[in-house]
Write a structure and sequence with these properties.
The complex is a heterodimer of chains A (147) and B (533).
Chain A lengths: L6 H14 L14 H8 L6 H15 L8 H14 L1 H15 L3 H6 L23 H4 L10
Chain B lengths: L5 E6 L3 H11 L5 E4 L17 H5 L7 H4 L8 E4 L31 H5 L9 H15 L23 H14 L4 E2 L37 H7 L3 E3 L3 E7 L5 E7 L5 E11 L2 H11 L25 E7 L14 E3 L15 E6 L4 H10 L9 H8 L3 E8 L8 E9 L5 E6 L4 H21 L3 E5 L36 E3 L14 H17 L7
Parallel strand pairs in B: 1-2, 1-8, 2-5, 3-14, 8-16
Antiparallel strand pairs in B: 4-10, 6-7, 7-8, 9-12, 9-15, 10-11, 11-12, 13-14
Helix pairs in contact in B: 1-7, 1-12, 5-12, 6-11
Chain lengths: 147, 533
C-alpha cells in the first residue's frame, strides 16, 4: 500500500496518527507513529484506501500544504478542524490506526493482555455466583398461555 | 445440457437448509443442496490470528456490502434505517451469529388473538415443540431448565458462565426485582457430539475456530452428507423454472466457473433467508408467473420484519470480562409479554452481553466521543477497556406490507442477477418499544453500578434477522405458503426459512427457523405418497 500514498501523504498520515495516539511514558507505550505500528497501518489500508486518500487530501486542503510540515501550533489547529469535520473518511482512517495500535505486542502487554490470538489457548471466565438466581427461581411463570 | 434429475433440490445451505436436508435424508431420496458460497475453514477464522478484530470490520464483516466477498451479492439498503447482515457460505448466518438460541413463546403464535395486531400463525407452540427439542439435540444447546419465562424445556448442557459482567448485571436485575435467566445458547459447554467445548475465545460473531458454536456446516450438514445429501458449493441459483404443468421443474444456476447449469428436480425447497428467498422468487418470472413464482397473493417480498435493536451499555469502576467469553450470557424477559400501560404492544428480550475486544473498545470509544485524541487518550482508554458491560433489547417487529424486498432496477450481482432492494420504515410501535428498552436498560445498568451509560437505537447494523417476506397461512390470498411450507401456487415448491414467519416475536429467530424447517420436512415425509395433491 505504500506505493498508493505519496511520500508527503505518508508523512502527513504519520504525523496525524501520532496526534491521535501519542506515545506515553506514563503507560510505557509507543505512539501510533512508531515504526512497527505505522508500517502495520500502511499495510492495512485494504478496502478503505479510498477513504484514507480522501482524508489526506482534505487534510492537505485544510493545511494549505503538507500537514507534516506545519509548525506545532498550526498543526494542532488544523487537526482540531479536521477532527470535527473529517467525516466518514476520517473515521475509517482512525479505525485502521486503532486496529493496528491495539494489536501491537507492547500495547497489549501494557493492558495486561497476552500478545496472542484467542485460539487455540482461549481464556478463563469465572462461573460467577449462581445463587444470584434464587429470587428468580422463586417467581411464578411469567409467560402467557395462548388460545 | 441438463444435469441428471434429482428428487429434491434445496437452494441455500444455511440454518434452515441444513435442517431440512438432514431431516429429508432418511427418505433416501436423491437430494442436492446448492450453495453460492464455500465451505469455511475454522482454522482461518479471525480468532486464530492476531488481526481477529480487524477482520470483523473487513472480510468477516456481517454486512455483505462491506464484506463484498465473491460469494456475496450486493443489497440496496439506502431506504432502510436498518442494514442487512448475513453470510453466504455453508452454514449461512449461523457462521456469524452470536448463537443466542431462545425459542418463541406460546403467545408469539397468537398475536392477533391476544393483542389485536399482526396475524395469528396457522400453527402453534405445541406443534413446533417436538421440533424445537429435536433441533436442540442436533444443535447442542446449553442453558438451564426452569426459566419462568418459558414452558418447560431441557437444554443439553450446563449454561455458559456468568463471569464478572453477567454477575454484575444479574445483581442489578435482582435489585429491581426483574426477571433474568442464563441464555439458551447454541454453544457447547461440554464436549458434545464430536465438538469441543467452548474455551471463551470471545469472538463468536466471526466464526468459532474451536467449533464449540453450532453452525450448520459442523452440525446438520456433515450428518446429512453421511446420509447421502450432496452439497454443491459455488453454485449461485438464478431462478426456479416452471414446466408446462405449472409445477417447478428445477433451477438454473451458475457454477464455480460461471457456467450456466440447469438442475432438474421433482421438488424445489427454498432456504435463502428473508431477503434471498423473495429475491429468488421475484427473479423467477415466467408466462404463468409474470410477477414471480408463488406470488399470486402479491405478498412475496412484503411484510419484511427485522428486530429493531436497542443497544444499551455502561462503564463500571470494576473490571468486566472484556474480550473474554462468548457474548451470550443471560437474558431478561421482564418486558416480553404485552402490557398496554407501557404504550406499545408486544415486547422485547434483553440479551445481556459481556465486554469488547481491545480494538472495538477503542473504535467505539472514539465514535462516542469518550476517547480523545492526544495525551489524554491512554488514561481515557483504560477506563473503557474491560470496564464495559451491557445489553441489547431485541424488539418484536410487526408485519407491515410497505416494508419490502423488491428487485433493484439497476444493481446486479457478479453473475448479472438483479439484486434485492430493501424499503423499510420503523413503526411508531417499534419506536416506543425501543425507547422503553433504552429507559429500562439504563435502569438495569445504573442499578448494577454503571457510572456512565450510553445507547444506540435503532442499531443501524442490526439487520441480522430477516423475516416475513413469504409468510405462511391457510388463506392463499393472504399468504405465500400453506401451514406446512408448501407454496399455494406451485405444489412442489417449498420454503423453509425465516421468510415464512407470520410475526417476528421478540427473540432471535434461528432456533424457530430450524424448528420450522424440521416441521416442514416432517410434513413432507408424512405425505410423500400424495405430496402434490
Amino acid at each position: 500500500m505504500t506505493d498508493i500514498l505519496t511520500a508527503d501523504e505518508q508523512r502527513s498520515l504519520r504525523a496525524l496518527v501520532a496526534m491521535i495516539i501519542p506515545a506515553s511514558a506514563k503507560h510505557g507505550v509507543p505512539g501510533a507513529d512508531d515504526d512497527a505500528i505505522f508500517a502495520d497501518i500502511l499495510g492495512s489500508l485494504g478496502r478503505d484506501v479510498g477513504h484514507v486518500v480522501a482524508a489526506l487530501r482534505r487534510l492537505r486542503v485544510l493545511a494549505g500544504g503538507v500537514f507534516a510540515d506545519l509548525d506545532t501550533a498550526r498543526r494542532d489547529a488544523v487537526a482540531e478542524v479536521f477532527r470535527v469535520e473529517g467525516g466518514v473518511d476520517l473515521v475509517r482512517l482512525s479505525n485502521i490506526a486503532l486496529q493496528c495500535y491495539y494489536r501491537d505486542d507492547r500495547v497489549m502487554r501494557s493492558l495486561g493482555m497476552e500478545p496472542r490470538p484467542p485460539f487455540p489457548k482461549g481464556f478463563e471466565v469465572e462461573q460467577g455466583d449462581w445463587s444470584l438466581l434464587d429470587p428468580v427461581r422463586a417467581r411464578a411463570k411469567i409467560w402467557r398461555d395462548a388460545p | 445440457m441438463a444435469l441428471d434429475k434429482v428428487d429434491v433440490v434445496i437452494i441455500g445451505a444455511g440454518a434452515s437448509g441444513g435442517a431440512v436436508a438432514w431431516s429429508l435424508a432418511e427418505t433416501r431420496m436423491r437430494i442436492v443442496c446448492l450453495e453460492q458460497g464455500d465451505w469455511q475453514k475454522p482454522s482461518e477464522y479471525p480468532s486464530a490470528g492476531r488481526d481477529w478484530e480487524a477482520r470483523q470490520m473487513n472480510d468477516m464483516n456481517p454486512s455483505p456490502n462491506r464484506r463484498a466477498r465473491e460469494a456475496d451479492y450486493p443489497i440496496n439498503e439506502d431506504d432502510s434505517p436498518i442494514k442487512i447482515a448475513n453470510f453466504n457460505g455453508v452454514g449461512g448466518g449461523t457462521v456469524l451469529y452470536a448463537a443466542h438460541f431462545p425459542r418463541f413463546h406460546p403467545s408469539d403464535f397468537r398475536v392477533k388473538s391476544l393483542d389485536g395486531v399482526g396475524d395469528d400463525w396457522p400453527i402453534d407452540y405445541k406443534t413446533l415443540e417436538p421440533f424445537y427439542a429435536e433441533n436442540d439435540r442436533m444443535t447442542g444447546v446449553s442453558g438451564l431448565a426452569g426459566d419462568p419465562a418459558y414452558p418447560p424445556k431441557q437444554p443439553m448442557m450446563p449454561p455458559l458462565p456468568l463471569g464478572k459482567g453477567g454477575a454484575m448485571l444479574a445483581r442489578g436485575l435482582n435489585k429491581l426485582g426483574w426477571h433474568w435467566w442464563p441464555s439458551d445458547s447454541a454453544i457447547a459447554t461440554t464436549d458434545y457430539e464430536g465438538r469441543a467445548k467452548c474455551i471463551n475465545l470471545g469472538h463468536c460473531t466471526s466464526g468459532c475456530a474451536q467449533g464449540a458454536k453450532a453452525s450448520t456446516d459442523i452440525t446438520y450438514f456433515p450428518m446429512a452428507m453421511r446420509a447421502g445429501v450432496e452439497v454443491r458449493t459455488r453454485a449461485r441459483v438464478r431462478e426456479i423454472t416452471v414446466g408446462p404443468d405449472g409445477m417447478a421443474s428445477g433451477v438454473v444456476y451458475y457454477d464455480d466457473k460461471g457456467v450456466e447449469q440447469f438442475q432438474p428436480a421433482e421438488v424445489v425447497i427454498v432456504a435463502c433467508n428473508g431477503v434471498g428467498t423473495p429475491r429468488m422468487l421475484l427473479n423467477s418470472v415466467s408466462g404463468k408467473f409474470p410477477n414471480g413464482i408463488a406470488n399470486s397473493s402479491g405478498l412475496v417480498g412484503k411484510n419484511l420484519m427485522f428486530h429493531p435493536y436497542a443497544r444499551i451499555y455502561g462503564y463500571f469502576d470494576g473490571p468486566t470480562d472484556g474480550y473474554r467469553g462468548p457474548g451470550d450470557c443471560i437474558w431478561s424477559q421482564e418486558f416480553y409479554e404485552t402490557d398496554r400501560a407501557r404504550g406499545f404492544l408486544r415486547g422485547y428480550t434483553f440479551e445481556l452481553t459481556r465486554g469488547q475486544g481491545a480494538v472495538m473498545a477503542a473504535v467505539h470509544g472514539m465514535a462516542t466521543g469518550r476517547l480523545p485524541w492526544g495525551e489524554d487518550h491512554h488514561d481515557a482508554y483504560r477506563k473503557l477497556f474491560s470496564h464495559r458491560a451491557g445489553m441489547v433489547g431485541i424488539c418484536e417487529d410487526l408485519p407491515e406490507e410497505h416494508n419490502t424486498v423488491t428487485l433493484d432496477p439497476v444493481l446486479k450481482d457478479s453473475n448479472g442477477i438483479p439484486a434485492p432492494k430493501i424499503t423499510y420504515t420503523l413503526s411508531e410501535n417499534s419506536r416506543r418499544m425501543l425507547d422503553h428498552a433504552v429507559a429500562r436498560g439504563t435502569d438495569i445498568l445504573k442499578a448494577a453500578g454503571a457510572y456512565d451509560v450510553g445507547h444506540e437505537a435503532p442499531l443501524q447494523e442490526g439487520g441480522w434477522h430477516l423475516m416475513g417476506t413469504a409468510r405462511m397461512g391457510k388463506d392463499p390470498e393472504r399468504s405465500v405458503v400453506n401451514e406446512w411450507g408448501r407454496s399455494h401456487d406451485v405444489k412442489n415448491l417449498f420454503i423453509v426459512d425465516g421468510s415464512i414467519f407470520v410475526t417476528s416475536a421478540g427473540v432471535n429467530p434461528t432456533c424457530t427457523i430450524q424448528a420450522l424447517a424440521l416441521y416442514v420436512a416432517d410434513a413432507m415425509k408424512q405425505r410423500l405418497a400424495n405430496l402434490f395433491d
